[in-house]
Design brief:
The protein is an alpha+beta fold and 197 residues long. The chain has a domain at 3-134: Rossmann fold, CATH 3.40.50. The protein has eight helices and five strands, in the order H-H-H-E-H-E-E-H-E-E-H-H-H. The chain has helices at residues 11-18, 32-39, 41-48, 62-72, 109-112, 158-165, 168-175, 190-196; strands at residues 54-56, 74-85, 94-105, 119-123, 131-134. A three-stranded antiparallel beta sheet has the order 1-4-5, with helices on one face. Strands 2-3 form a two-stranded antiparallel ribbon. A hairpin with a 7-residue loop joins strand 4 (119-123) and strand 5 (131-134).
Length: 197
């Protein structure tokens, strides 16, 4: 289930407080604006800050690309710079070399849209570098066990079918012998009945 489809729920509270009880959540979403629409900008940012390990696959949405680039961090590059000065006299000509340190994004936002299928960047907690991963599809091996086969059914009579479909109470009632009481009433005439009364 995607993270944004959960709408506003207790998930934020569970993520926040569940860590001290060993709670571990695996959450997926497609773009940051989806979360900002539901939880607001600050709510989405504070919620995303709760997750330490982050895995980023291909993304084409510009604001999400920028956010991912910032999350992955920057790198320092030392660039040499050469200055040449010319003077009126050849004695005044000079060359100077200097080095400037610049910070650049480790991954440019546009690089995220160029990732291949099953290619991602992973950021782990702690002092570990950001890593680019290439995964492969894993196919399952064919099973050597035959499929489950049904036992062939024997033909049943109508009475056997009715008995098998009957409820347990009906089955018990069929097994008990029925006590029959017979009352014999003799036929008498009306005159005899009046005489008895």
């Amino acid at each position: 289930m995607n993270f944004h489809t959960l709408r506003k729920s207790r998930l934020f509270v569970n993520c926040e407080k569940g860590r001290k009880y060993g709670g571990c959540f695996l959450v997926g979403f497609q773009s940051k604006p989806q979360l900002e629409e539901i939880y607001g900008r600050q709510g989405a940012e504070s919620m995303l800050d709760l997750f330490n390990t982050k895995v980023f696959f291909r993304c084409t949405e510009p604001s999400t690309q920028t956010w991912i680039s910032k999350v992955l961090g920057d790198k320092e590059e030392i660039e040499p710079q050469e200055n040449i000065s010319y003077g009126a006299n050849s004695m005044r000509d000079g060359v100077s070399l200097s080095h400037h340190t610049r910070q650049k994004p480790l991954v440019m936002p546009t690089e995220l849209s160029q990732l291949e299928d099953l290619e991602c960047y992973i950021k782990l907690p702690g002092d570990y570098p950001c890593t680019k991963l290439q995964m492969a599809y894993q196919t399952t091996s064919r099973s050597t066990v035959e499929a489950f086969l049904l036992k062939p059914e024997k033909p049943m009579s109508y009475e056997e079918i009715q008995e098998s479909e009957a409820t347990p109470m009906v089955k018990k009632a069929k097994k008990k012998p029925v006590k029959q009481e017979v009352i014999i009433v003799s036929e008498t005439s009306e005159e005899e009945n009046e005489a008895l009364v």
